Amino acid sequence: MMLDLNAYLGDLVPRERVYDVSLNRRLAMRVFPNGTRVWVYWRAPAKDARGRTIGVFPQMNAEQALADTSTVLEWSRFSKLPEADLPDDTDFIQTGNFFQLRRREQRIREWATRAMAGAAVTLVSILILKWVLSPLFAQDQETVQAKTPLAPPPAQETPGELLAVSKQPVATAREPRIRRATFASDVVEHEPVDALGERIASWPDAPRPVYMFTDLQNLAGQSVYHRWYWQDKLQSEVEFEVGSDWRWRVFSRRYIEPGQNGTWVVSIVTGAGDELARYALEVDTQ
């Protein structure tokens, strides 16, 4: 039966406008005029609710889409939260481990809350104990100072020694700041509809649109640039202002004219001038 459903969905004919084919009150397939088919999920079965893309057909078939959306309902019942308040994390839903991962996160949050409460109680206890015993500590300190001879002053450091200390290397740990990046033929609802790979063919009679999709992390509040190069020459630069979330998805588009074959490179650079990554795309004549 599921094979027949996948075959039916695969035979849907694109129309001039985008349209949806519902599987139930929360899951539907959205068909675009260019033939792209994506799965759309609604957290609440309301007509004015905004759906979210959870996968692309046929990479995600009907059985997988139904299984992934059922895990969201299971987690809603477990956490006693309405589906509209669940966090937005498409990667967890697509792996099929949404329920297990969220339960683990809840346990970690509970443990962290207990640890912070214990640390606060310990800190308050230490401060109270120090305040109560401070007169005794002051008296002991005065006695020690009276019985201890003065130590000689420390030797002065020479400028050469100071310079040697200032040149010591400082180790810094940096996390990867790009979770995903790919060239795509289109981006729908902040997700690429496909992955073009490292080589494509140009269109002979019209410009071909190419998208660079980037999933960023740990760059909240910073500026990020997509710089498009062709034959080692800068063609365009697109600036993004990363929001306050720890993850932020951005994309830029470039139309490749007929005859602009060869190597295209997109450099991802921060506002401070740090190059995070560089991706190359070979364009051949069709």
Concise synopsis of the structure shown:
With 286 residues, the chain is an alpha+beta fold. Helices cover 32% and strands 32% of the residues.
Molecular structure report:
The protein is an alpha+beta fold. The protein has 2 domains: 2-100, 2-Layer Sandwich (Double Stranded RNA Binding Domain); 178-285, Immunoglobulins (Immunoglobulin-like, Sandwich), CATH 2.60.40. Helix content is 32%, strand content 32%. The protein is built from 5 helices and 14 strands. It has helices spanning 2-10, 62-79, 90-95, 98-147, 159-166; strands at residues 19-22, 27-31, 37-41, 52-57, 178-184, 187-188, 191-192, 199-202, 208-217, 223-230, 233-241, 247-256, 262-270, 275-285. Helix 2 (62-79) packs across helix 4 (98-147). The longest helix is centred in the middle third of the chain and has 50 residues, at 98-147. It is flat, with a radius of gyration of 29 Å.
Topology:
Elements: H1 2-10, E1 19-22, E2 27-31, E3 37-41, E4 52-57, H2 62-79, H3 90-95, H4 98-147, H5 159-166, E5 178-184, E6 187-188, E7 191-192, E8 199-202, E9 208-217, E10 223-230, E11 233-241, E12 247-256, E13 262-270, E14 275-285
Spans with pLDDT under 50 lasting ≥5 residues?
74-99, 139-174
User: How would a textbook summarize the main sheet?
Assistant: 5 strands, mixed
Strand order of the largest sheet: 8-14-13-10-11
In percent, how helical is the residue content? 25-40%
Beta strands, count: 14
Named CATH topology of the largest domain = Immunoglobulin-like
Alpha carbon gap, first and last residue: 40 Å
- Would you identify the CATH H-level superfamily of the largest domain? Immunoglobulins
Q: What percent strand? A: 25-35%
- Average residue pLDDT: 76
Would you list the SSEs in sequence order as H and E?
A: HEEEEHHHHEEEEEEEEEE
Q: Per CATH, which architecture of the largest domain?
A: Sandwich
